[in-house]
Amino acid sequence: MNKRASGSKRQKNNSQTSVSLAETIPSAVKNLLASCDSDVCFDHVDAAPIPYHEAVVQIIQQARRILFPGYFTQTRLDRVSLEYYLGQQMTQLFDSLSKQIVLSMQHGCLRFDQPCQQCTERGNKTALQFIQSLPPLRAVLAKDIRAALDGDPAAKSFEDIIFSYPGLLAITVYRMAHVLYELEVPLLPRIMTEYAHGLAGIDIHPGARIGESFFIDHGTGVVVGETTEIGDRVRIYQGVTLGALSLPRDAVDQYRNKKRHPTIEDDVIIYSNATILGEKAIIGARSIIGGNVWITDSVPPDTKVLMNVPGLVYIGNGTRSTASKDPLS
Amino acid sequence: MNKRASGSKRQKNNSQTSVSLAETIPSAVKNLLASCDSDVCFDHVDAAPIPYHEAVVQIIQQARRILFPGYFTQTRLDRVSLEYYLGQQMTQLFDSLSKQIVLSMQHGCLRFDQPCQQCTERGNKTALQFIQSLPPLRAVLAKDIRAALDGDPAAKSFEDIIFSYPGLLAITVYRMAHVLYELEVPLLPRIMTEYAHGLAGIDIHPGARIGESFFIDHGTGVVVGETTEIGDRVRIYQGVTLGALSLPRDAVDQYRNKKRHPTIEDDVIIYSNATILGEKAIIGARSIIGGNVWITDSVPPDTKVLMNVPGLVYIGNGTRSTASKDPLS
Amino acid sequence: MNKRASGSKRQKNNSQTSVSLAETIPSAVKNLLASCDSDVCFDHVDAAPIPYHEAVVQIIQQARRILFPGYFTQTRLDRVSLEYYLGQQMTQLFDSLSKQIVLSMQHGCLRFDQPCQQCTERGNKTALQFIQSLPPLRAVLAKDIRAALDGDPAAKSFEDIIFSYPGLLAITVYRMAHVLYELEVPLLPRIMTEYAHGLAGIDIHPGARIGESFFIDHGTGVVVGETTEIGDRVRIYQGVTLGALSLPRDAVDQYRNKKRHPTIEDDVIIYSNATILGEKAIIGARSIIGGNVWITDSVPPDTKVLMNVPGLVYIGNGTRSTASKDPLS
To answer: Of A3, A64, C107, C297, which sits with the fewest C-beta atoms within 10 Å of its C-beta?
Structure first.
């Protein structure tokens, strides 16, 4: 009896819902479409195809299998089969990468109302140039891995770094994306670095220029802006920002494509959560930037910049510590 | 011979392991079950079904396909088919969303030992209200996208922002979750914003109230607490915390559902890693908060708050820089 | 006509590309292989198998289903079937975990050119020890969940915490990885904690020692280093670093396996983005560390350490706030 009552109640609800559903969805669709007639919406309809996020993720994973053979696969490799394995992987990579590059270029042409007859040719050529960049990229990444082992006492082995270090993941993806950025591929480089950003919390713009033996430890919250320049053997920690000064709302357009970010010279170490902003901030070689500081000016070579200890207040049981000593020494 | 020896050794090991396995697992199961008889454990047995994480992720992705038609699909859309596409997507979204809302509501009722005869009806109605909110949501998100292009010289196109900006992803998911939060759906809104937190490193509580044209750049480490209020055209950077002051352990309960977080008025800019805590912190319109500062009080309108440059010590080659100038000018 | 012209053009491009492709890929493979003959590259060829990332992710998810029965599955559980469910899950967990442990141990032996006849036996035994640790682990995690509800006014229910709190995810994975770290399993523990780091932005080294009722709120950017010790009922917020002082390049090796990280005593609270570095930093019981401070020395028990308010400059409309009061009170 109860069951029937509740059953009939449910039926009533269902039919009520059905009526509302039959009215609500067409009306919501109509409103969504209407909002497209004004200029307040974004859609991608009747346009050239655009790159597809999942395909870009596959490209990154395949390139990693080529750059670190044997690490990111369950396929057991040996010296004899390695050549065939790499040849097959590279052919697949070329196919999928050239497709996404062509889509990105077609989309870029469309945006500026340009004809796009050569997109396919240019896209394929660019994909080949990327393939050619893989051997030198591999050598550069090997130096990054050594820098991680040299810089972190918690690193137990190269395998630890290759498997687990988010810094290496972010640098690997950045170095791939930078090759495509330099080859003037639109959209794709940023999709790639944002994939790494999502995984590692490390946001390196594909336009940044970064030297050899670069090590990012922990890394969550690191930001490296588009026009940043970083020398060799630089080491940075989690939360470090190499960013731009925020611009007045009416000045943003005139700063596009201009130098807006810091320059970090060789052998600099930047501790966690330090913020270095603007193109005037040139951090001289071998300097050490302490944690949590905020810098918008240049620092000469061989300098330590630290937060002043009297900047802290001790309340309660503690006594104010003196600031006469260098806490890093 | 060696092979047989090692084979027999392995067999011995296997049988040893088997014996241990035969003992260990039942004993571990028993201990796990025993721990459930006391109050020191959490399980979800004999209870109403609960929302399922993977289903929530699908809901978010489907809603994104509706809010940004054509961007997150390989299906090529045109003006003629768009209406049918949106209608079909919305119907699917209603089905999966209403199911998860009903599960969340049933679970909430059970928690307070309340009968739940109307959960299905209320859940379906709530899902319809969510569907109705999509067209206005789309217009609000369009303003967020424009704010990103206006605020970031590194943004090359609207597509760049829609595809790649973690800030837009976090804001999109927050705005959807906030609709469900206002409709008093339990569990689900927080699962949604934590999904975005995991991807983007940006933690916006679904209860926060955020105005139009909101832009978060980079974003990793951003925290926006439950009772935060944010005006229009506010711009914040990575690592910014709009949080609560930590409470004494015995005071936590009396602060639930009370205002505990800052208020940020229109046109404020907050630089990276600034921390603003507590409901007394009201940041006046058009103010600029510098990076890495820590604020628990109000700031009047049209004010710049910066870390004092003499707060830094330069050791070595550097000379102490003077603090007489405004580093943002 | 146009179509044919463009068709023939495309054919030309294709054949050009084909030629380049036929040359480029073998040459790139050759260069990649050549780079392996020098010592500038990393590969994993002709070596013992290594643990597989996807398998480790499955292990973590299965262990979570055992530790929180009924929460992370669509299977509806009841008291009668629970025992069989747990037994089946544990057997599967043993199978997959022992396999990955054995692979990790074999890889470790190979690295030091040691024979590895006992890897399988040791691996299986270690997997059993892990299974045995699950019931006590479950009780410890229950205390972590209670600490979250006690510490966060925004927590609506235990379910909210179990489903959505990234801090609980990171602590759960850390506590599992720490068991394997103590059992001297190579590679695997760090792969596990880095999986959580990727999802939650919280980087807890498996070697850290952490007491009961640990609560991390929000959590993005948190770093807890390898030799950190944390007492009971400690509460930390997003962006907190418990790290090591950076070492001179030639001193890194002598610090491996030595205490390099802080000690945090019972009942300490550490606000967002505070940085505490080095083994000399012992934070006394019941102390409160304010946000954004940078500490390399000890703090006595019952002390508050705050950033000095005069460390800020107010420019424009604002008046300099006085520093005479304790902003936390």
So the answer is: A3
- DSSP letters, B131-192, are HHHHHHHHHHHHHHHHHHHHH-TT---HHHHHHH-HHHHHHHHHHHHHHHHHTT--SHHHHH
Highest mean pLDDT among B246-250, C32-36, C320-324: C32-36
Closest to B29 (Cβ–Cβ): which among C86, C218, C310?
C86
Confidence of residue C308 (pLDDT cuts 50, 70, 90): low
Predicted local distance difference test score (pLDDT) of residue C46: 67
Helix (H) or strand (E) holding B64: helix B53-67
Measure Cα distances from C31 to A67, A253, B319 in Å: 12, 43, 49
Supply the pLDDT for residue A148: 94
Q: Is the ipTM of this complex over 0.85?
A: no
| Highest mean pLDDT out of A60-74, B187-201, B249-263, C238-252 | B187-201
C167 touches chain B (CB under 8 A): no
Beta strand residue intervals within chain A, DSSP E: 203-204, 209-210, 215-217, 223-224, 229-230, 235-237, 241-243, 263-264, 269-270, 275-277, 282-283, 288-289, 294-295, 303-307, 312-316
Closest CA to B155 of A310, C143, A285, A252: A252
Exposed / middle / buried, residue C328 (Cβ in 10 Å: 0-12, 13-18, 19+): middle
Q: Is the CB of B102 inside 8 Å of chain C's CB atoms?
A: no
Which residue type does C34 have? Answer: A
- CA distance, residue A84 to nearest chain B CA (Å): 32
Take residue B32 and report the two structure tokens written for it: 């796990």
Average model confidence (pLDDT) across chain A: 84
Listing from the earlier edge strand, what are the strands of the sheet with B209-210?
A: B209-210, B229-230, B263-264, B282-283
Helix (H) or strand (E) holding C57: helix C53-67
Radius of gyration of chain C (CA): 26
pLDDT tops 70 at residue B239: yes
- From first CA to last CA, the distance across chain C in angstroms is 82
Residue in chain A lying closest to C26 (CA): A87
Q: Do A159 and C107 touch (CB under 8 A)?
A: yes
C83/chain A closest Cα distance in angstroms: 32
pLDDT at B37: 64
The pLDDT, as a whole number, for residue A7 is: 38
> What global pTM score does this model have?
0.86
DSSP structure string for A50-104: ---HHHHHHHHHHHHHHHSTTTS-SSPP-HHHHHHHHHHHHHHHHHHHHHHHHHH
Is 60 exceeded by the pLDDT of residue C103?
yes
Q: How confident is the model at residue B222 (pLDDT cuts 50, 70, 90)?
A: very high
Return the closest-CA partner of residue C224 out of C209, C203, C210: C203
